[in-house]
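Today's session is about reading a structure prediction critically. Students often jump straight to the picture, but the first step is always the sequence itself: look for stretches that repeat, for charged clusters, for runs of hydrophobic residues. Only then move on to the predicted structure, which in these notes is written as discrete structure tokens rather than atom positions. Here is the chain we will use throughout the hour.
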Amino acid sequence: MSKTKLILISLGVALFALLLVYSYIYKKEKELLSLATPVKVVVAAKDVPEGTALDESFVEIVEIPKNFVQPGALSEVAEVLDRETAVPLLKGAQILDSLFRPAGDQGVARKIPADKRAYSIAVNDVSAVAGLVKPGDFVDVVVTAQTGSVQQGRPVADNTLSRVLLQNVLVLAVNQQSTVGGGSRTTPRQAAEGGLASGVVSGAEVGDGAEHLRTLTLALSVQDVQRVALGQEIGSLSVALRSSWQKAEQALPLANVTAQDVLGTEKTVVPRSRPVWTEFRGSEAFQVQ
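Below is the predicted structure for this chain, in token form.
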């Protein structure tokens, strides 16, 4: 083989090796540049105590190299708003999705509209629509009471009346469950005035069965709390479940409904007597109505 051919072969091998080295260096350089590419992440703008509901003042957007972005880091401020921190955060710390409390663990207070109060009423399977009422539903509250007079120091009932006490009331919780599986059961069109139906978040399924139904916690104004508290003392409360497709509307002017109206008579209607049972206290028995 001539010397010229050997030189050409050597040059070819050297050129091929040079191309391989260049390709390797280019690939590594590209990988390094990719890791150094700035990425936007949400960080704490100041020290944040545990249990804080974040707003815009607590966070900011910064750019850091992709290689230093922690797994689960959030990139949009909207993803952290109104979420409650499970641990303290230091200024400059990246905001991770795992640093927040689960929605179902944030308590009912986070779901109460700013101008409302949470108030519970006692119910059963009949007065609460067979236990079909769930957190996030809207209901009307009905009070039924007896009227009459006091004779010889004892109340004597002569009539019974019913009244729609409140309309379009948000249910915050059923018993101690403030969440329901499958998300909110309300539509955006039915958000009550000042309501926070979107705050009712998805979570564990509320226990079903009439035997589990004891209380409904409602979002009420301070004045409505007084009315419902009095309603529970003077009579019995029940609720009527509203349609999810019904638009929010002003409360309808509804009159009291008396027993005469229901029966279509002007005669005096005798209220049904309450059931009687025997209560034993030690060796003594008492008849209770």
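Discussion point for the tutorial: Strands lie at 38-44, 59-65, 117-122, 138-151, 154-174, 215-220, 235-241, 257-258, 277-281, 284-288.
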